[in-house]
Amino acid sequence: MTLPNPLYTTDYGTAYVGDSLLLLDRLEPDSIDLVLTSPPFALQRKKTYGNVEQEDYVEWLLEFCQKVYRVLSPTGSFVLDLKVRLESYLTCIANRTNSKYVF
Ligand SMILES: C[S@@+](CC[C@H](N)C(=O)[O-])C[C@H]1O[C@@H](n2cnc3c(N)ncnc32)[C@H](O)[C@@H]1O
């Protein structure tokens, strides 16, 4: 698993630009302590960054969450910033993965 060239590096870490679904696959399992993200929303209006259709959103977010789960260390945290009205998506994913979420 190799990562692409970083955008920049500081004493605190390294930034990469790319499709997170692909970049997550290149990280070692159980290697990340914190994932903090504001992912695309399932909006009715199309965004220039290409958000998925509402009916496809749960599958898209579920795939993303599963990739995050693979790289998170056992004591790691996953902070997901979603609009409150998207709670139904989180409920659906929590039910399908037998997991819990906290507001
Ligand atoms: C809801 S916006 C987040 C905005 C950000 N919180 C801010 O305040 O600027 C979602 C962002 O995710 C990016 N994005 C969409 N699909 C992505 C993907 N597959 N991998 C990485 N970033 C993605 C979009 O370009 C957009 O900037």
Automatic annotation (TrEMBL):
GO terms for biological process: DNA restriction-modification system; methylation. Signal peptide: none annotated. InterPro entries: DNA_methylase_N4/N6 (IPR002941), MeTrfase_CN4_CS (IPR017985), RM_Methyltransferase (IPR001091), SAM-dependent_MTases_sf (IPR029063). Residues 32-88 form the DNA methylase N-4/N-6 domain. Keywords: DNA-binding, Methyltransferase, Restriction system, S-adenosyl-L-methionine, Transferase. It comes from the Bacteria. It catalyses: a 2'-deoxycytidine in DNA + S-adenosyl-L-methionine = an N(4)-methyl-2'-deoxycytidine in DNA + S-adenosyl-L-homocysteine + H(+). Its EC number is 2.1.1.113. GO terms for molecular function: DNA binding; N-methyltransferase activity; site-specific DNA-methyltransferase (cytosine-N4-specific) activity. It is an enzyme of class 2 (transferase). Belongs to the N(4)/N(6)-methyltransferase family. N(4) subfamily. This is site-specific DNA-methyltransferase (cytosine-N(4)-specific).
